[in-house]
Amino acid sequence: SPVGKASAVVSAAREGDPTARAAVRFFITALATCAGDAALQTGAFGGVYLTGGVLRAIAEAGLFNDETFRAAFVHKKGYRDIMAGIAVARITHRDPALLGLAGMDTG
């Protein structure tokens, strides 16, 4: 399963495997590039929230590099100043959808 493979890569990266560490850096850079593109395409100038199991595993392993992410996120020719003003936050709750549903007023 893809989740099993991702956790194996994260585990190997945490243990110092250079290929796994490169894969994690690539994932962070690709995620940042895509998130930045999406922010521009949708006008999400108020901020971007990131979530997901692979991202959470990378962060919990202490492998998420904010500087690497930010550099790729803002790297948009002609839009760097705009991108630099967009806040990015990681959702750390394991079930954010359930948390949100639990807080809804159904009455």
Characteristics:
2 strands, mainly alpha, 107 residues, flat
Write structural notes for this entry.
The protein has about 110 residues and is mainly alpha-helical. It is about 65% helix and about 5% strand. It contains 6 helices and 2 strands; from the N terminus they run ααβαααβα. It has a two-stranded parallel sheet. Helix 2 crosses helix 4. The longest helix has 25 residues. The radius of gyration is 16 Å and the shape is flat. The model has no long low-confidence stretch (mean pLDDT about 90).
C-alpha Rg (nearest Å): 16 Å
Seen as an oligomer or otherwise, the chain set is single chain
Read across the widest sheet, the strand sequence of neighbours is 1-2
Order of helices and strands: HHEHHHEH
Structural class: mainly alpha
Shape: flat
